[in-house]
Amino acid sequence: xxxxxxxxxxxxxxxxxxxxxxxxxxxxxxxxxxxxxxxxxxxxxxxxxxxxxxxxxxxxxxxxxxxxxxxxxxxxxxxxxxxxxxxxxxxxxxxxxxxxxxxxxxxxxxxxxxxxxxxxxxxxxxxxxxxxxxxxxxxxxxxxxxxxxxxxxxxxxxxxxxxxxxxxxxxxxxxxxxxxxxxxxxxxxxxxxxxxxxxxxxxxxxxxxxxxxxxxxxxxxxxxxxxxxxxxxxxxxxxxxxxxxxxxxxxxxxxxxxxxxxxxxxxxxxxxxxxxxxxxxxxxxxxxxxxxxxxxxxxxxxxxxxxxxxxxxxxxxxxxxxxxxxxxxxxxxxxxxxxxxxxxxxxxxxxxxxxxxxxxxxxxxxxxxxxxxx
Length: 374
Known about the structure:
Layout lengths: L1 E5 L1 H5 L4 H15 L4 E5 L15 E4 L4 H5 L1 H15 L4 E4 L14 E6 L3 H4 L6 H17 L2 E4 L2 H11 L6 E3 L16 H8 L7 E4 L8 H9 L6 E4 L5 H11 L6 E4 L4 H10 L2 E4 L8 H9 L3 E4 L4 H5 L4 E3 L4 H12 L2 H15 L4 H18 L1
Parallel strand pairs: 1-2, 1-4, 2-3, 4-5, 5-6, 6-7, 8-9, 8-11, 9-10, 11-12, 12-13
Helix pairs in contact: 2-16, 8-11, 9-10, 9-14, 12-15
């Protein structure tokens, strides 16, 4: 079967939705040899998408008008190219489907990652909220099948958009292959030396934005003298509040902010860390949790939402508004190697369900179900 993908973000987004798109294409090319895959993008980008073999073809706009108006091509005219290329099924990897695909005879699948803009509207401008809501609801209603990356997102789609549960299929995300692969001898020591890391530290990974709630971790660690925190992620204006609290509590010597690191270095950081703290209030899934489990790093995250889906029974969960509870959990883990070892073992076992092979099986089963209906 010829399967097409909206691959714009695979070429243009360095994290988040871009990682998801690249992972889906990589996993399917490696584990779905019975099909051929087409990546549709308005233009090439800064993110490499080099996969071995001839089962992935990259398609950009053809014709002067389509090249001059790539956004229109992606939203409307792409359907003509799908027919030309013999595409039987098209998968929008990030909340969107081209207009008219529902009348084209091409089966349509869309991945919805989250409805955070509906749950936390105060974090978005009014214009952005309207655009996101229209695109997401429209794609979900016009799709033959909606893939949700967690049961939390599936339930949100039912509760907020009224989608029938039978139209939604949960297919979990995986994570970057560098998190699952062995590191070269000496790699950990080299990263620790180059970044001047402390021998032990608590790690936080993710954009430093209000929803991810890094202030909770800083408040908790303020009363744990001698426990360093390494923060990896792009900073938003919220980071100023975090840095101000760090200064106020005299923690400048034990809180490090890093950004722009390549994935192999981030993979090394996970393995060097004593524990990952992920205090986010809400996510569609929570990839850093999974990355930590694959890396053998114990996880402390928050209760509710999708976090238990990602972290499993071996992770620790706290109230996102209670720094004292987080302080108690981190303090106990810091001093208890036996408990950390049990969490590492449980985490690795839980992570097996997110291996590439398992995700490929679920995606291909979803595609087969949709194609059979057509």
